[in-house]
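Appendix B, example 12.
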Amino acid sequence: MLHRFKSKKMLFALAVVIIVALNLYTFSVAYPTIKGPVNFGNGDLPRDFSVYYLAAWRMWHNPSQTFTVGTLNDGEPAIYPAPTPYKYLPSFLVLITPLLSLSYYQAFWVFDLLQFILLPLIAFLLYKLLENKNPSLAFLVLIAVVLLPYPMAGRGLSVSYFMSWAEGQAKILLTFLLLLSFYLGYKGKPLLSGVVFALGAFDPRFALLGLPLFLFYNRTKLKTAFPTMVLVLLAFNFIVFYPGVYQGFIGMILGSGDTTPFYTPSYIPLIMLLCLLAVNAKQIVDTVKKAVT
């Protein structure tokens, strides 16, 4: 039995090394786009990371303009092309604030590098959450989430990951935080699970989709996990009540927020959540039935 367990761990470790190496290839294909304005044939395009970087600067230096679209003459970093509207909760800006100590392109490179380093950790969290499931199923989930194969000429082995690196998208960080929250709940640490889920809820679409899993993994200690999550979520987004921020936030939601296209990097957290919902569907349904009856 012990020998079988060790063999399973070795096979998983080997699979992770291969999958991360394949993703490294996609990262290397995207790397040349990181050193200057990105252009896919239709002119220079604003990056997602430029939106985060500028919004974080505004939150600390001119908070009422956090959700303002366009360039301001207030000493903010000059970024070309002009960023698009910021569409996450303010809590995400707290997470990337340390990067403001770097220049824009330095911060962009570090942000991508940090997200790449998260890939083996994402694989480990998936392994722990699926350790009691069918090994073949767990392996397929690992490939689907950490590699997400969808090759295209000039974009490596995965369009979703290529665009994530090229645009400086935050969906890998989002995937990691949600998975970490589920894992902490699975290990009986509801307080930490609630804190991490609140930090990973900066994109409300995926927070709502992941909420059933958060409740499921914390089902034995919801009285601790859920209130903690709500309190931390409010605390990290309290700046939304600052004069001007609230109006900008509501304007974003009623304006461009509900028309945000579902870009390819969004498939990374989406597939992770759908896979975990699918493999735990029977247990989730049984838990709900038990709670109702």
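Strands lie at 38-39, 44-45. The CA atoms of residues 132 and 138 lie 9 Å apart.
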